[in-house]
Amino acid sequence: MDALSDGARVIVAGGGAIGCAVAWEAALRGLDVTLVERGTPGREATWASAGMISPSGHTAEEGPFIELALASFHAYPAFVERLAGYTAEDPVFEPVGKLVVALSEAEVGELEAFKREQAGRIAVELIGGDEARRMEPALSDAVVAAAHVADDYRLDNVRLGRALWDAAARAGVRFRLGDSVSAVLSEGGRVRGVALAGGGELAAEAVVVAAGCWSGGIRGLPRALPVVPVRGQMLALQAVPPPIRLSVHHGSTYLVPRVDGRLIVGSTRDNAGFRATPTAGGVSTLLAGALQLLPGLAEARVLEVWAGLRPGTPDNLPVLGADPELPGLVYATGHFRNGILLTPITGELIADVLEGREPRISLEPYRADRFVEAS
Ligand SMILES: Cc1cc2nc3c(=O)[nH]c(=O)nc-3n(C[C@H](O)[C@H](O)[C@H](O)COP(=O)(O)OP(=O)(O)OC[C@H]3O[C@@H](n4cnc5c(N)ncnc54)[C@H](O)[C@@H]3O)c2cc1C
């Protein structure tokens, strides 16, 4: 994309972690940014998440995604430090590590494969069940082995959302809340602004689509954007004192302790359209998974159950960068299960695109027209 001049107007559609991080970074680089958010910033997938920042996380496939994930992972400590210079809201960044546990010999084999996959990326130490219980005494006797990943982070995603909103506002981003972008407007073959659902238009030289799983509903895009909602259910137990210090993973179950005494239990994955409602079946799966790992939780109070909508794409990869056909249109969406992990790198790379700079990571694999070519 052509470079925008200093002070050029940019509209960011969507105020989740991704939209706020992009807006913050773009404002710091001298652009005049307005963020349009339909509801409250940080209250959708960003709020619903578990806040795990794990490069070995949810999309462990080979290929370019690993480079993106690792770059964001390594950027995190400096990112949260910089955030602290703009807001008093503390996202409680905890670089503490995690245990991935095995309950059977077959699962021990999976841990060995996991260690091989991660070689050269992050250190994984395989330990026996007793060693795992020495690290985390509340773990069930059924745990026969574990992979200890020391280099793994987590934070409080709800606070991250508020921190990014605050930091962006303090950096000069204007927030237009309670209205949504209904269409991207173009004229003479380039973007000229957006139409608002509440009526009226906002003029801009560039528009960043960062509306999470709702991104594909914005009109005026040059082609269909297949970002779809993928529901994830979660719950929180009260666990004081915290029964575990490290995050604990097993299959699709993970347990993430918070400093406020909540223990987050995640997660399910299904397609339920735009219905972000927890279900009896989902909650029962989560509780069964949690009690299998930490039997002592049986008496823990259930504090909250919720569901969120991950922005999924057909290939599970995000859509990032300038539209190949419509100058001024930029995407920062489709982060699926990795949006919290990818927040720092997305802010940086999208600000590079807006500035007309070559990003340090190629955005070619994340082009918006790749689905058309594939079909
Ligand atoms: C249960 C669950 C657990 C997760 N756990 C993790 C995890 O541990 N680690 C991790 O890295 N990721 C995790 N994720 C994924 C992560 O939460 C998402 O990838 C990330 O939050 C996406 O951020 P976003 O800003 O793109 O979307 P959102 O946070 O959904 O924000 C999009 C925003 O756009 C607004 N909006 C929508 N349409 C419009 C419009 N037309 N105009 C204006 N505003 C609009 C919405 O109101 C919303 O605020 C999890 C997700 C879920 C659901």
What report would you give on this structure?
The protein has 375 residues and is an alpha/beta fold. It has 9 helices and 19 strands. The protein has helices spanning 17-28, 45-48, 64-84, 105-118, 129-135, 157-170, 280-293, 343-355, 370-374; strands at residues 9-13, 32-37, 52-53, 98-102, 125-128, 145-149, 153-154, 174-177, 181-187, 190-196, 201-203, 206-209, 228-238, 247-250, 253-257, 262-266, 301-312, 319-322, 329-333. An 8-stranded mixed beta sheet has the order 5-6-4-14-15-16-13-17, with helices on both faces. It has a 6-stranded mixed beta sheet with strand order 8-2-1-12-19-18, covered by helices on one side. Helix 1 packs across helix 8. The model has no long low-confidence stretch (mean pLDDT 96).
Q: How would you classify the helix and strand content by structural class? A: alpha/beta
> What is the level-2 CATH architecture name of the largest domain?
3-Layer(bba) Sandwich
N-end to C-end Cα span: 25 Å
Give the spatial strand order of the biggest sheet.
5-6-4-14-15-16-13-17
Number of strands: 19
Number of domains: 3
Which descriptors apply to this entry?
3 domains, single chain, binds flavin-adenine dinucleotide, alpha/beta, 8-stranded mixed sheet, FAD/NAD(P)-binding domain, 28% helix, 9 helices
Secondary structure topology:
Blueprint: E1 9-13, H1 17-28, E2 32-37, H2 45-48, E3 52-53, H3 64-84, E4 98-102, H4 105-118, E5 125-128, H5 129-135, E6 145-149, E7 153-154, H6 157-170, E8 174-177, E9 181-187, E10 190-196, E11 201-203, E12 206-209, E13 228-238, E14 247-250, E15 253-257, E16 262-266, H7 280-293, E17 301-312, E18 319-322, E19 329-333, H8 343-355, H9 370-374
Parallel strand pairs: 1-2, 1-12, 2-8, 4-14, 12-19
Antiparallel strand pairs: 3-7, 4-6, 5-6, 9-10, 10-11, 13-16, 13-17, 14-15, 15-16, 18-19
Helix pairs in contact: 1-6, 1-8, 3-8
